[in-house]
Structures are given as structure tokens and as C-alpha cells.
Give the backbone structure.
Amino acid sequence: MDSIFIRRLTQGVEWVLVVLSGLIFAVVFLQVVFRYVLRQPLFWSEELPRYLLIWMSFLAAALAQRQNAHINIALCLTPLPGRARRVLKILTDMVVLIFLWILFYSGGLVTSVTAHHRSTALQIPMGWVYAALPVGAALMSLYLVLQIADGVRRLKG
């Protein structure tokens, strides 16, 4: 399941999450300093962390999918015998995958519709903000497909 491409992709997502966290911290710190110490609030300092947090949320959700750390109901699977548990896990993963594909498609539509709208303070295209949705859904789908393939392999072997 771990090809070099997947490992590098995961490391890239982790790196981007670290950078986004640092940027959010820096901007919020600057916002506090400028607002309460210098009495000159930055007009863009509330908008940027919000948009960075949106990206961070979707990328972190993809990383959680990679690590199989999303919330699930193990109580339903635990009493089942091994083979039935694996089959049910694959089936539920396939349902989630269909949902992620719908999310990817609808996120792409929203991104294209908002591509020409500008944010209030930063004046960046809102499509950049909304692109977090299809990017996150695509990454989660990739990781989920790999988990489904691994589950099918274990079921057969």
C-alpha cells in the first residue's frame, strides 16, 4: 500500500499542514499585536486565517483518512467474525468513497462558480478558497481507494 509516491504525497500534505499552522499562528499573533498594542488593526488579519483554516481542515481530513483515524462505529464491527467484519468494512468504505466523489464533483462546481468572486479584504479569487473541497475530497478518495484495495487483498489472501 505504501508506494514512494504515496509516502511523498503524505509527507507533502504533512508539510503543508505544518506551514498552514505556522501561518495561522503568525497572522493571529500579528493581529493581536497590531490591534491591542499598536491600535492599528490589520484589515486582512481575520480573513486570511479563516481561509487557511479551511484548507487546513480538508488536508487534515485527508491525512486522517490516510491513517484510518476518522470516527467509525467499531461497536458494530467487533462482534462479527473476521471475514464478515472485513467485508462490511469494504462495503462501508465504498459508500464513503461514493460520497467523496459526489463531494469532489460538487466542490468542483462551487469552485468554478466562485472563481471570479473576490474576497472582501484580500481580494483573492474565492475559487482558491473553495478549491480546498475538491482537493481534500480527491486526496481522501485516493487514500480510501488504497485502503479498499488493501482490504480486498486481505480478504482474498
